[in-house]
Design brief:
- This protein is of the alpha+beta class and about 260 residues long.
- Helix content is about 25%, strand content about 35%.
- The chain contains eight helices and 13 strands.
- Strand 5 (about 125-130) and strand 6 (about 140) form a beta hairpin.
- The chain starts with a helix and ends with a helix.
Length: about 260
């Protein structure tokens, strides 16, 4: 992710009022009718897949499209996947630091299940997961201890042993603000299926926005990838990326629950 674009996202978030003033879903999404609202609060939330960059349907109006969608659209993705979900409130709303700490527990991604239609059962998506020292030094390192306060920005580097793509390497950029966090996820090495390159380095990118509302935890995500026509004809890439985003969102939600 370009540091300039990410810095803009940090500035937008840091300009918000105090986090203790939880906003309501109705305030942020006044145009949602009861049917659409119920879908957002359902187990799976709302999900949209599109090949048209102008067809974003779920991007919250209070987020600057350039800062959230820009890093995804700049990769000229072959497809876009949007999701919006609110998880009912826990006994205590998660603050920015709790969300930040959850995002740094890379090892909790290991063994998380996803429904495999080809195997007709749920299987682990990531057979192993660990943080690594950086893009040039991929030596595994322990997950860090809990932070007492979230910094304005940070980066986490991860190695995930993907059931389909083998060893996969990602960078997670985190920008903490008064209301929530913006997270940018991209692959810093090529994703391959056996020996066939599927997504070249930095051609997959996802942006997530996470905020505690009065009603629960809001998670918005936008993801896309640039793949060749040949790969697109052989692999259902929107489905593959959607499953991974769903697993990552589940990991974030469960990690925040541990912080409550």
């Amino acid at each position: 992710m370009g540091r300039g674009v990410f810095s803009l996202a940090v500035c937008v978030l840091m300009a918000a009022p105090a986090f203790s003033q939880l906003r309501s879903f109705q305030t942020l999404f006044p145009d949602y009718d009861e049917t659409k609202r119920a879908a957002v609060f359902s187990q799976n939330g709302l999900l949209e897949t599109s090949s048209n960059a102008k067809a974003l349907k779920l991007l919250p109006a209070f987020l600057a499209p350039k800062n959230i969608a820009g890093p995804v659209l700049s990769r000229s993705p072959s497809f876009l996947i949007e999701s919006l979900i609110v998880i009912p409130a826990q006994p205590r709303p998660a603050d920015v630091t709790a969300i930040y700490n959850a995002l740094r527990r890379a090892r909790d991604l290991k063994g998380r299940l996803y429904p495999s239609f080809s195997r007709n059962k749920e299987v682990p998506l990531f057979e192993d997961a660990t943080q690594v020292a950086g893009e040039k030094n991929t030596t595994p390192i322990p997950d860090p201890p809990r932070a007492s306060r979230a910094p304005a920005s940070d980066a986490v580097f991860m190695k995930l042993k993907d059931v389909n793509f083998g060893n996969s390497y990602y960078r997670l950029d985190i920008a903490a603000g008064s209301y929530g966090l913006v997270c940018g996820l991209t692959n810093f090495r090529t994703l391959s299926y056996t020996v066939i390159p599927v997504i070249r380095e930095r051609k997959f990118v996802a942006q997530l926005y996470i905020e505690s509302l009065a009603e629960g935890l809001l998670v918005y995500s936008l993801a896309g990838a640039d793949v060749s026509d040949f790969i697109a004809s052989k692999i259902d890439m929107p489905s593959a990326i959607r499953k991974r985003i769903e697993v990552i969102i589940g990991w974030i939600i469960d990690g925040i629950a541990k912080e409550a």
